[in-house]
């Protein structure tokens, strides 16, 4: 397992380098003079020259790239053109908000999706199966902004159970430590604020969870149906095992590998693609941070945001690969 | 019921739903398994051997299958009336089973130790340490060297023969009264086949476990069975003592099966094969089910279904009109040889 992990980690190096190249190229892909484009039509000559120097655009591109990599290694993501602050400090609260939202959404999606898939396979062609799979089909096809609005209308406006937008109660702001509010409130021993933060989290994470949940449920169902026909399942039953253990131990472990792939990919997608949900629910996440940065042509921020999301995506897939090996002992031997 | 009989199957009928109606795969079979014996069940694919054994384990996939009629008496108790929960106490504990494909019959994602211990923990209240001890004991019993090491290994690290030994160990975990082996050696090399068979014979002698051995290979039957049942198209066509049946087969089907076994010592000639195929369930011919493929069939065979005629005092029976009047006057006409 250790050598397998080491090998997988080594294979990441070229991927990460490729990523930095692409991100680095973004600013060079701007047609014309980037500084001019960034500052707009009415910028003074001095301002353009200052920005050109600040962006390092007056030097050859390979030196620029080298400097870029060097600063990445020291954890320096550059300076935001809009706020003039260091990006590596500014970006974290947004990233944390997105991580919290994605984490909650995937928790819901996996918990409900996997179990719905299992029960559907177990009682295949029953009313539960049909209902669950029709719901899953609806879930996949539902536009997320519409679902978000409907949630707000039903649970916030009509029923008044949950807040419509934001992460916290503005009258009682949460003191940020890690910026993961569920964690922060617990550290500070504020159960009341924890509840508030949780309430704010529910609607956006349910909206965000819908599509992955539906995909996971369908995937789990089909792989479970396949596995439950296997000879070793018959063996397990011949031992006298009850259906619960046959399903949750012997079948699920075999069926989960393709599902893990889907979970990994969906998590990566949510991290970068939650802009709609974040916008509807006023969630200050990385999607909205990037969206705003694009509006202001804040190129260093755009570069950093893309780099971070891509890196997380790559690492999630690494984790999925390691989980494969953990689940299936044959994988690490075969390579 | 015979005091010696441990498993008795009476008039068992198992059907599978296909499209619009139930089609019987096993149609009224009756036999008994005596304490400590090895009983062979022989027949071509599709003759209902495996369905019979799955029924005795309560593992008929339902739907589409169901036991329609008859009873399965184990130690005098009818198993067909058991609920799933009660079945679980029988399966793997009193009656256990090994299957044809050792390569796929073990779960690839759990260690041998885990899968063995699971079988033990299910039916006994042993501590973990005792369980591990019992696991190594079992592996030794089935002739696996370095048992402790194997416990930590995964199925893909073992050969087919070793896996089948593990399967047998698993089946023997709780000292079952009956072991059902569904073509246990079909997927194995000939040398490994011999080892597995002698292992089963050994276990039978040592532990006094009764064995039902399902096979299509009469050679295997000759080697280890005490009695044999020949099945054809969901029915028993002949049953009796192995020696009698192998020496003087009475049913043309049994005779055909025997003639299709290659003989290494005899003169070389084209190997006999019974013409035609086992009729598919649902398209069973009227009259004797074997009649369309039988060289000795006569008029009556196509009209009425023959019952089983007793042809001897040793329980030898045959489902064939040729033996209608019994042993003394019913001269055996058989196949022209």
Automatic annotation (TrEMBL), chain A:
It comes from the Bacteria. Residues 95-324 form the ABC transmembrane type-1 domain. The keyword Membrane applies. GO terms for biological process: transmembrane transport. It is a multi-pass membrane protein. The chain crosses the membrane at residues 12-30, 101-123, 130-149, 201-219, 255-281, 301-327. GO terms for cellular component: plasma membrane. Keywords: Cell membrane, Membrane, Transmembrane, Transmembrane helix, Transport. It is found in: Cell membrane. Belongs to the binding-protein-dependent transport system permease family. PANTHER family: DIPEPTIDE TRANSPORT SYSTEM PERMEASE PROTEIN DPPB-RELATED. This is Peptide/nickel transport system permease protein. It comes from Mesobacillus foraminis.
TrEMBL record, chain B:
Its main location: membrane. Residues 7-258 form the ABC transporter domain. The keyword Transport applies. Keywords: ATP-binding, Cell membrane, Membrane, Nucleotide-binding, Transport. The keyword Nucleotide-binding applies. It holds the Pfam family oligo_HPY. GO terms for biological process: peptide transport. GO terms for cellular component: plasma membrane. It is a peripheral membrane protein. Coiled coil: none annotated. GO terms for molecular function: ATP binding; ATP hydrolysis activity. Belongs to the ABC transporter superfamily. This is Peptide/nickel transport system ATP-binding protein.
């Amino acid at each position: 397992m250790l050598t397998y992990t080491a090998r997988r980690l080594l294979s990441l190096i070229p991927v990460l380098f490729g990523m930095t190249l692409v991100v680095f190229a973004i600013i060079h892909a701007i047609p014309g003079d980037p500084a001019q484009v960034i500052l707009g039509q009415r910028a003074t000559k001095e301002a353009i020259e200052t920005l050109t120097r600040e962006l390092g655009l007056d030097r050859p591109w390979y030196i620029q790239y080298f400097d870029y990599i060097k600063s990445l290694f020291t954890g320096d993501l550059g300076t935001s053109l809009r706020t003039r602050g260091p990006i590596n400090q500014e970006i974290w609260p947004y990233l944390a908000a997105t991580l919290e939202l994605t984490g909650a959404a995937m928790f819901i999606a996996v918990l409900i999706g996997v179990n719905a898939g299992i029960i559907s396979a177990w009682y295949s062609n029953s009313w539960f199966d049909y209902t669950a799979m029709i719901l899953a089909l609806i879930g996949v096809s539902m536009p997320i902004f519409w679902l978000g609005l409907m949630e707000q209308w039903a649970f916030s406006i009509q029923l008044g159970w949950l807040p419509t937008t934001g992460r916290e109660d503005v009258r009682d702001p949460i003191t940020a430590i890690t910026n993961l509010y569920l964690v922060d409130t617990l550290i500070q021993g504020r159960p009341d604020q924890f509840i508030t933060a949780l309430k704010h989290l529910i609607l956006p994470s349910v909206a965000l969870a819908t599509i992955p949940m539906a995909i996971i449920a369908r995937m789990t169902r089909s792989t479970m149906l396949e596995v439950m026909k296997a000879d070793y399942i018959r063996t397990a039953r011949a031992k006298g095992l009850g259906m619960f253990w046959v399903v949750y131990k012997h079948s699920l472990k075999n069926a989960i590998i393709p599902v893990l792939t889907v979970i990994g990919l969906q998590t990566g997608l949510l991290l970068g693609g939650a802009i709609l949900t974040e916008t509807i629910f006023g969630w200050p996440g990385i999607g909205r941070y990037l969206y705003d940065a694009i509006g202001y042509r804040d190129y260093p921020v755009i570069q950093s945001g893309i780099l971070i999301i891509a890196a997380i995506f790559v690492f999630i897939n690494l984790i999925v690969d390691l989980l494969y090996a953990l689940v299936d002992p044959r994988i690490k031997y075969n390579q | 019921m015979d005091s010696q009989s441990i498993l008795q199957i009476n008039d068992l009928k198992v059907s599978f739903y296909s499209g619009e109606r139930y089609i019987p795969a096993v149609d009224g079979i009756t036999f008994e398994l005596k304490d400590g014996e090895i009983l062979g069940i022989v027949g071509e694919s599709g003759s209902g051997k495996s369905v019979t054994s799955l029924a005795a384990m309560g593992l008929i996939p339902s739907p589409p299958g169901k036991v329609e009629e008859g009873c399965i008496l184990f130690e005098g108790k009818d198993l067909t009336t058991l609920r799933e929960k009660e079945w679980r106490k029988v399966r793997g504990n009193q009656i256990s089973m090994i299957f044809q494909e050792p390569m796929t019959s073990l779960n690839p994602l759990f260690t041998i130790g885990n899968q063995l211990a699971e079988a033990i923990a299910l039916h006994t209240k042993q501590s973990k340490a005792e369980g591990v001890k019992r696991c190594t004991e079992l592996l030794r019993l089935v002739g696996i060297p370095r048992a402790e090491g194997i416990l930590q290994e995964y199925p893909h690290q073992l050969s087919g023969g070793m896996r089948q030994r593990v399967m047998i160990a698993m089946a023997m975990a709780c000292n079952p009264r009956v072991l059902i082996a569904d073509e246990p050696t079909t997927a194995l090399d000939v040398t490994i086949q011999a080892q597995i068979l002698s292992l089963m014979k050994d276990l039978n002698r040592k532990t006094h476990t009764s064995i039902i051995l399902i096979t299509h290979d009469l050679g295997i039957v000759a080697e280890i069975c005490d009695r044999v049942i020949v099945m054809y198209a969901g029915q028993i066509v002949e049953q009796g003592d192995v020696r009698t049946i192998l020496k003087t087969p009475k049913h043309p089907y049994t005779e055909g099966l025997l003639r299709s076994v290659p003989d290494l010592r005899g003169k070389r000639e084209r190997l006999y094969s019974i013409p035609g195929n086992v009729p598919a369930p649902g398209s069973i011919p009227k009259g004797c089910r074997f009649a369309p493929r039988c060289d000795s069939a006569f008029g009556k065979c196509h009209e009425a279904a023959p019952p089983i005629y007793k042809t001897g005092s040793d329980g030898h029976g045959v489902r064939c009109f040729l033996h209608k009047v019994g042993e003394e006057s019913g001269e055996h006409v058989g196949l022209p040889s």
